[in-house]
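Try this one yourself first.
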């Protein structure tokens, strides 16, 4: 493409939301440019079997699903680039995106840069992601059937996921680094009332065991009060210690909520000081802290692409 051309649409992010937006806008002949971002393929690219995406009765591997979406987008004319945004200027039209030394101009923008699960960042944890270490109970709970497992975190998500996981696991141990649980009383009471949920507070995970076997065998824990270390035999570790929206580049440029998620109106319209910014849309986990599912991200990616088409049509393209 000529360097000085103005794109009709640039999509930031290549997870479910971004790629669905790419498929739809490519099929509208808008030749979308997708900047794949820091985590190409998004959260699905680090999961294993996805069993709840409609249309795959036997399930599909997350990376395969993403690869297929990419092929589908490219088939209709999308361009995917392994690049990420350095800065952005939405005050002029066309919008100017800086990517390394390059400036890219676009009439519309779809932000689908997602949210990243927060991890403990232990080397053993990172080595076992997808092999018993996961951040998605909805996706992976089923695989914990008949097993003893651990949920890390002490907030509402940890309680909710632990309760959900009792449908599958025989025993769930919630491990909280602080003495006090951050969860609301109602959620904490509910979890505490469950006979198959046990609690460990003031306890940190020092190591996930099973790196050599490529399968979680247990956790080496440390009691923060006594300093004692011991092993808890579990087959799964579910992280529920929060998500980080990938919206740093938009601070002061778009309205964000206090945790940094992009605020939207009518599903995908972005705002600044409460006023809609025409031509700039956000979809997927960057603006959804509630559902965070592949299918809901895909759905909002579709909405964003349809709004782009409508906007361009209204502006004579
Ligand atoms: P959260 O309330 O921020 O809790 C995060 C938990 O993770 C805390 O227990 C925190 O421990 C722990 N944590 C953070 N970083 C950690 C680390 N590096 N190592 C170990 N532990 C770490 O997050 P959340 O539970 O995801 O909830 C987010 C928001 O969604 C909350 O407002 C919550 O109420 C809401 N939510 C509501 C519902 C519901 O109402 N049904 C369900 C889910 C979520 P510390 O306390 O020690 O910092």
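Now uncover the answer:
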């Amino acid at each position: 493409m000529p360097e000085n051309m103005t794109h009709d649409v640039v999509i930031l992010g290549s997870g479910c939301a971004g790629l669905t937006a790419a498929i739809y806008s490519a099929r509208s002949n808008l030749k979308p440019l997708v900047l794949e971002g820091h985590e190409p393929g998004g959260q699905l690219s680090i999961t294993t079997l996805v069993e709840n995406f409609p249309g795959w009765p036997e399930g599909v591997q997350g990376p395969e699903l993403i690869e297929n979406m990419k092929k589908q987008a490219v088939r209709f004319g999308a361009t995917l680039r392994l690049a990420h945004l350095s800065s952005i200027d939405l005050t002029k039209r066309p919008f100017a995106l800086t990517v390394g030394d390059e400036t890219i101009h676009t009439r519309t923008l779809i932000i689908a840069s997602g949210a990243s699960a927060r991890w403990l960042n232990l080397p053993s944890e990172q080595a076992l992601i997808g092999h018993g270490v996961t951040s998605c109970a909805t996706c992976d709970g089923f695989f914990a059937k008949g097993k003893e497992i651990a949920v890390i975190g002490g907030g509402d998500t940890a309680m909710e996921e632990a309760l959900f996981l009792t449908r599958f696991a025989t025993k769930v141990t919630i491990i909280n680094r602080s003495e006090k649980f951050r969860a609301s009383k109602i959620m904490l009471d509910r979890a505490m009332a469950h006979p198959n949920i046990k609690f460990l507070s003031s306890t940190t995970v020092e190591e996930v065991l099973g790196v050599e076997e490529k399968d979680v065998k247990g956790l080496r824990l440390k009691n923060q009060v006594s300093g004692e270390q011991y092993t808890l035999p579990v087959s799964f570790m579910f992280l529920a210690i929060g998500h980080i929206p990938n919206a740093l580049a938009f601070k002061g440029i778009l309205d964000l909520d206090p945790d940094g998620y992009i605020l939207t109106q009518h599903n995908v319209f972005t705002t600044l000081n409460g006023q809609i910014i025409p031509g700039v849309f956000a979809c997927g986990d960057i603006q959804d802290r509630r559902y965070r599912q592949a299918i809901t991200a895909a759905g909002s990616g579709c909405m964003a692409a349809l709004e782009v088409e409508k906007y361009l049509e209204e502006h004579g393209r």
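Discussion: The chain has a mean pLDDT of 95. Residues 294-314 form the longest helix (21 residues).
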